[in-house]
Amino acid sequence: MSASTDPHRARSHHAGPRGLLDAAWRPAGLLYLACCLAGLLAGLYPQAVYPARSAVTAAPLPALRTLAVAQALFILLAQPLIALRRAERGLARRYWAETILESATWLVATVPFYTAAAYLGDATAVDVLRTAVYLACLWPVAWAAGALLARRGAARAPVGLLLLVAAALPGVHYLFREFLPVYRAAWLWQLAPATAAWDAAASRAGTLLPRPLWSLAAWPAVALALLAGSVLGKQPR
Length: 237
Hints:
Layout: H1 7-14, H2 17-23, H3 28-42, H4 46-49, H5 63-88, H6 95-109, H7 111-120, H8 125-136, H9 139-149, H10 156-179, H11 186-191, H12 193-200, H13 213-232
């Protein structure tokens, strides 16, 4: 039987370096770029995106901040579903390599958006690096969540709920601030990926690492917990 008609040989061929290269860019990348473009364009309208009207200024535009928020929400809500679909296709052996390679490719594709956002927002290279560092800490959460969601078992519901709660934390912070001001809830703002990304992307902040440092470490810790569950349990089929 020829190589073109032998399913086993075809799968083996796809699993090699050529298969990894093919995985570096897939149609889902267009969705990611569209999300980045939407975030960049949102930064052109500060009166619509600043959390408080008193913070609105004529310049600089919050383009880097809105780009960071768009990426954070994509990583939490869209990337796990993309990874889930890959894991469900029977790519368990290549799941981590292909998913990480794809994310790295997307990072490179985001450079023009970061360049434009930094120019519009009067941000420095340090500001861009700080933003990228924070967002890089969110990617492992999406990878591990996708692997766990693919199991269709008891882990699917709590993992999905975790991602939704993480995305909704800014709303929880708002409720505390408006209706329960006696309780100090600033930590919710610092923990929520969307608002922490907003703070990390501040222009001319001067520090390489986002502050507070515990908010930077929180989501990698969550990723490690999810990864432990993925490794100890059954691998995605």
